[in-house]
Amino acid sequence: MGKNLVILGAGCAGTMVANKLRKRLHRDEWTITIIDKDDRHVYQPGLLFIPFGIYQPEEIVRSRSEFIARDIRFVIDEINHVDTEKQRVETMAGSYPYDQLIVATGVELAPGEIPGLMEGWQKVAFDFYTLPGAINLHKAMRTFKGGKLVLNIAEFPFKCPVAPLEFVYMADAYFTERGMRDAVEIHFVTPLPGAFTKPKASAFFSRLIADKDIKITASFDLAEVDCAGRKIISAGGKSMDFDLLVSIPPNVGARYLVRSNIAMDEIGYVKTNKHTLEAEHHQNMWVLGDATTLPTSKAGSVAHFSAEIMVENFMRVLHGEAVRPDFDGHSNCFIETGFGKAALIDFNYDYEPLPGKFPLPGLGPFSLLGESKANHWGKMMFKWVYWNKLVTGEELPLEAQMSLAGKIQD
Ligand SMILES: Cc1cc2nc3c(=O)[nH]c(=O)nc-3n(C[C@H](O)[C@H](O)[C@H](O)COP(=O)(O)OP(=O)(O)OC[C@H]3O[C@@H](n4cnc5c(N)ncnc54)[C@H](O)[C@@H]3O)c2cc1C
Hints:
Layout: E1 3-8, H1 12-24, E2 30-36, E3 40-42, E4 61-63, E5 73-76, E6 79-83, E7 88-91, E8 95-97, E9 100-103, E10 107-109, E11 125-126, H2 131-142, E12 147-153, H3 163-177, E13 184-189, H4 199-211, E14 215-217, E15 222-226, E16 231-234, E17 239-241, E18 244-248, E19 251-253, H5 255-259, E20 285-287, H6 300-318, E21 331-338, E22 341-347, E23 356-360, E24 364-368, H7 373-390
The chain binds flavin-adenine dinucleotide.
Flavin-adenine dinucleotide binds at residues 9-14, 35-37, 44-45, 47-48, 78-79, 104-106, 128-129, 159-160, 163, 254, 256, 289-291, 298-301, 303, 333-334.
């Protein structure tokens, strides 16, 4: 009897792992099925560039089918429920038994969780984490006459924790280039005590914020948005007015995970072994990408590095061997800083982002915790790498585990 591997979600993590495992599993033995609700794969790092008119929407959306190997069954349908006892996935129109399951359904935005936010959603309060949001925000930016632009992070964790910083750095460049920077106050309002989670990176990003005359308000726990009065209000009763609100609303896991009692709680993430990528409380289940509880960034780079480790562990399980705790939380990310420059961070569970050169020690060409034009070109070239190498499941010349080579430690 053939066996079934079912992969939930054909985004960054699901597509990549499907293609990687198709190369490793015998076709006669294993059928691979991947399920997603639509056939539109969005290159999400490109969403950052839409509000500034740098990318057009059609440049960052491709058909998912283009990137899923032919001998993988691609089902377009909404996942409704997973019965973990019977090992079966229910979609709106079908039912799929599994021997092994990979959960890779990412996160969704939940603006409705913040009282008042929906009243001005996509009218005075915008997001750039979805394609429609980024397109609407582009229109709002283009017609903005000046005033107070507030970027507010509602709560942690959320995907790509550097993207809000990139947004305010790029807004500074955008309004400068349009000759109206003096007419725009840019505010970065975060629940964190500083610009970022890790001390060295936080100090670096704070310096850039100060250099660009962006105002920062830290430790602001959003309680409510008054869209009519154009104010955000914190749990402690502080309020800040805005003319244009760019919101990072709460991120939650897919709702079927909560309905199926797979998620840890109502927020919807699946408790994941942070070193092996197995689901902690469910048999024959693995978790990848933003749906996990890994204590590192929710980022495509993490999906990539952890998928490499997961695939090896998956093969070990099939061969009756023990899994290995090899995933070290490796994450890296280019951070666009405006005016044709970017920074880069590379870190893991044990090491915070450090300065230095990457990937070649001493040579780079990329600078860690430093701005450069080379970093910017690295960021822009990544779109090609994403479509042509990453989601197709090819090996990239980057180690899954973080290396200290080229990094400067105190
Ligand atoms: C603005 C922005 C900028 C970013 N920049 C970077 C960056 O520079 N570098 C970086 O590493 N990462 C970046 N990221 C983060 C990166 O895009 C995500 O971490 C990555 O996409 C996670 O992959 P995933 O497969 O877990 O989730 P996704 O790629 O979001 O895929 C999840 C899939 O599950 C599907 N799905 C969900 N629920 C259901 C359901 N019920 N039924 C059927 N299908 C379902 C969705 O349709 C989706 O296709 C950025 C993200 C954003 C929003």
